[in-house]
Structure formats: C-alpha cells, structure tokens
Amino acid sequence: MNPAVSRQIRDSVQKMFRFTDTLSLYQDFYHRIGEDDLLRFIRKNTFEFGDVYPFIYVKMYFEGAEQDYKSIQHVLVDEMQDYTPIQYAVLAKLFSCNMTILGDSHQSVNPYSSSSLTKIQPYFADCQGMELCRSYRSTIEISGFTQKILENKKLIPIERHGDTPTITVCRTPKEQLAEIQHLIEEFRQSEYATLGVICKSQQQARLLFAQLHGVYDTMVLLDFGSSEFQEGIVVTSVHMAKGLEFDQVIVPEVSDDLFKTQLDRSLLYIACTRAMHKLDLTCCGEKTKFLHSC
C-alpha cells in the first residue's frame, strides 16, 4: 500500500477515537464521576501510588502490554494480603503461567485495603485455595496473648510453652527507657540469639536506637537501607519486621495515644506475632485499649 494512503487511513481511524492516549482516557474516568480533584500528580508525569496500578490496567487494555512475559513459567507472590484487587487484576493479565500466592489476611499492614482469598479468586480462573491453620512460630502463651488483640478463630498453635507475655506501664519516658534496658539485659543473659525491639514507626525506631546505641554498640537499626538481617539486638519498625521472627520481642510505647485505630491494632498484632519464645511490651501512661483484655 502506498505510504501516503496508509498514513491517511491511520489518521482517519485515529480520528474515530475520542481518546488517543491512556492518560486522557484515565483522566476522563475521574471527570465522569465528578472527582477530577482526586487525580493528583506528585510531580510532572508522576502519579500518586494509588493510581499506578489502575492506570497500568487501563493502559494494558488500551495500548497493550509493552513486554511479553510468556517465557515466565511460574510466578510466586508472598504477603498476599498487602496487594490490592487491582494489582491482582494486572498480574492476571500480565502472566498466563501458574502462580503460587501465599499470605495471611491477619498480617496486613493496612486492613482497609488488604486482600483475602475470596477477594482475589475472581481474577484467577480455576484457582485452588488451601488454608494452613497451624502456627509453628510462637508459644501457646504468646499465641493466646495475640489472639486477644486480633482474633483468628482458625489458628491452631503448636504445643510449646514458654513465659507469659508482660506489659509494663511506666510513669515517665525515662522510666520506660530504663525498663527497655532491663529487658535487653535479660536477653543478653539468656540463651536467645535474636531480640527484636519493634516500634510502631521507623521514626520511633531511629529515636530509640539513638538513645540506646551508645550503651549497646552491637545493636543494629534495621531500615529500608539495610542490606542484610543480623542476629543480636535489632531495632526496627513493624513494617520492616513483617515476615521476620525473633527469639524475644520488645514492643515499646504501646500507649493509648499511639494505638487507636484498626490500622494500629493490626500493626500491634503483627509486632507481637514476631516473637517465638518471649514477648514484653512497655508504655508510658495508659496502655492501648487493644490490650485491655490481655
């Protein structure tokens, strides 16, 4: 076909479309529901994270995928609960191979956007679900304690006993710091190899690390820049501790001021379930309502 005629046909076909690029189409979705202000850019050509996967999903249907993933033979997804349904919709369209998806809906860092087996099954035809209910990590005492924070009726703890978890309510921040040091000394005198001091946020972890590092020079701050996980005393946040386990865990500042919402409740549950043998919590002032029955 003559190149000029080919261009003319292409131009004529393109004029039939109301939108010629994915961004315009995506912006129109917001416009149609009267929520134009919800679509925001962090900077030029950079979406907020919440729009990334919906935009990719639209782009794949409108323009097609830029890369062929047919050579991928198997996809493994861990921490299933932390992915949203739209992310699974993208995965299902990108990969036609078999997948193994693992997770625990009780371990979500954001219960408001977490995914369960029921939520993701519609995106994968003929998928098979399997529930593993036995917990091998924590002692019966720790499992019983965490069940009072966030109940999982299907959980079956392994028959292994240990110390009863403790909650120490302190009058001042100085007193709480002294209690944390006391618990660290107990760890150093024990046969345990790993101690996790798990704070609600990375900012709190950095502050506590700065207060204690001069006393314990082998103490490690685990953050997003860390390249490896070490034994010994580790100070970190709940987000960084997800998927990890420690012989002993200290959860500082479990006060009612810091742990209020269902998201906070989920974070507290995750922090406490990192403990295998010993669990201790401290706070300054009134403890969180999520510990009232513990």
From TrEMBL:
<feature type="domain" description="UvrD-like helicase C-terminal">
    <location>
        <begin position="233"/>
        <end position="279"/>
    </location>
</feature>
<dbReference type="GO" id="GO:0005524">
    <property type="term" value="F:ATP binding"/>
</dbReference>
<dbReference type="GO" id="GO:0003677">
    <property type="term" value="F:DNA binding"/>
</dbReference>
<keyword id="KW-0547">Nucleotide-binding</keyword>
<keyword id="KW-0347">Helicase</keyword>
<dbReference type="GO" id="GO:0000725">
    <property type="term" value="P:recombinational repair"/>
</dbReference>
<dbReference type="InterPro" id="IPR000212">
    <property type="entry name" value="DNA_helicase_UvrD/REP"/>
</dbReference>
<dbReference type="InterPro" id="IPR014016">
    <property type="entry name" value="UvrD-like_ATP-bd"/>
</dbReference>
<keyword id="KW-0378">Hydrolase</keyword>
<dbReference type="InterPro" id="IPR027785">
    <property type="entry name" value="UvrD-like_helicase_C"/>
</dbReference>
<dbReference type="Pfam" id="PF00580">
    <property type="entry name" value="UvrD-helicase"/>
</dbReference>
<dbReference type="GO" id="GO:0043138">
    <property type="term" value="F:3'-5' DNA helicase activity"/>
</dbReference>
<protein>
    <submittedName>
        <fullName>Uncharacterized protein</fullName>
    </submittedName>
</protein>
<keyword id="KW-0067">ATP-binding</keyword>
<dbReference type="Pfam" id="PF13538">
    <property type="entry name" value="UvrD_C_2"/>
</dbReference>
<dbReference type="GO" id="GO:0016787">
    <property type="term" value="F:hydrolase activity"/>
</dbReference>
<feature type="domain" description="UvrD-like helicase ATP-binding">
    <location>
        <begin position="65"/>
        <end position="114"/>
    </location>
</feature>
<dbReference type="InterPro" id="IPR027417">
    <property type="entry name" value="P-loop_NTPase"/>
</dbReference>
<dbReference type="GO" id="GO:0005829">
    <property type="term" value="C:cytosol"/>
</dbReference>
